[in-house]
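--- STAGE predict ---
source: upstream dedup step, 1 unique chain passed
mode: sequence only
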Amino acid sequence: MNTDQKRSRRKSILFLVIAIAFSIALLLGIAYVVLTNSAREQAYRTAAVLADQVESILKNNEQKEASLIASLKENYIAKAKAVAYIIDRNPEIETSIAEQIRIAKLMSIDEIHIFDESGSIYAGTVPVYYGYSFDSGEQMAFFKPMLENKALSMCQDVTPNTAEGKSMMYAICWDDLGSKMIQIGIEPVRLLEELRTNRISQVIADFPTYEGIEIIVADSGTGEVVGSTEPKEIGRRLKDLGISNEEVDQYHQAKFSAVVNRVPCYCVLSQTDGHLIAVAQRKADVNRDIPVVLLTMFLYLLLAAGVICFVVWKMARLVIDEHKNANTDQLTGLLNRRAFELDIKALEQDPRREKMTYIVFDLNGLKAANDQLGHEAGDELLVSASRYLQECFGPYGSVYRTGGDEFVAVVFLDDAQLNQAEEEFTARLEAWSRMHGRELSLSWGCASFHDNPELPLTELAKLAERRMYEAKSNYYQSRGKDRRR
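--- STAGE serialize ---
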């Protein structure tokens, strides 16, 4: 393989390596985009499911609270009517605080108040409230409709009472005669406990979530956070956390990326009756497995590339070997006549033409060696001569075996290099002859474009061949032989 062929082969290998590296990088880039998009969409789907679950829980809690309050109101009104009935049947109780307290304990009531027809308290278990009326405050004013309709019964939601601000539920009704109103007051411990448990802040704090996910519930009007899996966020505003409710579309849901508390997140924001529900997932957690997947893909692609390169190398070797076998002389390992004929066509246009030298060699005494010593001895001469031709002239170009004992070297060198190559070649032939006790000799003739720039390559070859025959004739004449070949 000459220098140009080696250079071409190195370029091919480099191109293959670059192509494989580019392909792997491209595939990994595509995989990264696909995996990132897939992870983002999965994060949005997960967040949407969590938002729907939170919305469902909030609505369910609201329904439970409403049902509980309605049930308690019915029960408290029934207790107020029962107290009114007892007092109507036992008028002396109206003036006996001790009896009123006894009845309150029996019926699990905290307070009993008796109002006159004008809406003022004149009796009851808490004397300090005597004189209070429906005009004594907002909490008391709730019951003013009682003055207009004596068939009416009312129960108030849990409200801080006017005197102490204590959370109470009050129920009121008229007695059978319509002369007074009986009001009972109960501190609804069980209701308050359930309401506390069902508060949004508590519900969201207890909501099971995965690592890297934060659920936030805010008032849809003010944007103030009323519940969060991170309790420290309660009281802040969504926009202060990095979430804008302007993202919500006509379907009351939005998917977007945001920096929540200085952490990049994928977010889903849903709007329900009175609330905004935000679910934020940290991008780092969502994309956590992508580097491992990409590394695995890289290793598989690298392995696949190695297999492909091995297969390509094997196929290339087969092609090269086939080409080499088709263009190589089996005995000497030199390029054969077929290779010579293929290469000679391209040499006319070779840019190094000015330094080209065409040399024809002919092995002396081959027929005699074959006849006297056998073909093995003749083959030994051919192989040895070929080795020295390749060693001395091969580095400068190509050496061919064009016939039985004929060789051609097409080399690119200057006069000094040519002289050095010829001297080295002659010295090796002589050394071989001394070592083996028989002669190894070649006759050659050379012609260069430097000395004959006007000649085409075919004429240059003929000139070299004539000079070789002259040298061969001189060789035989010097030894007193008539045979030239």
